[in-house]
Design brief:
mainly alpha
Length: about 50
């Protein structure tokens, strides 16, 4: 399984979240983390099925 791809998705989401929180935009921060969670979960499930 390629964990590097999941790491990069999560790392970018954390960066986006921190930037959103600096601008006091909690909605964008929450969406960034939720999207990363969904993307990494979908990728994990795809890889597990192989």
């Amino acid at each position: 399984m390629e964990y590097q791809k999941m790491y990069l998705i999560l790392f970018q989401a954390i960066t986006d979240t921190l930037e959103a929180l600096e601008q006091d935009n909690k909605t964008v921060a929450k969406c960034a983390l939720l999207n990363a969670q969904l993307q990494t979960e979908a990728y994990y499930m795809e890889q597990a099925a192989l």
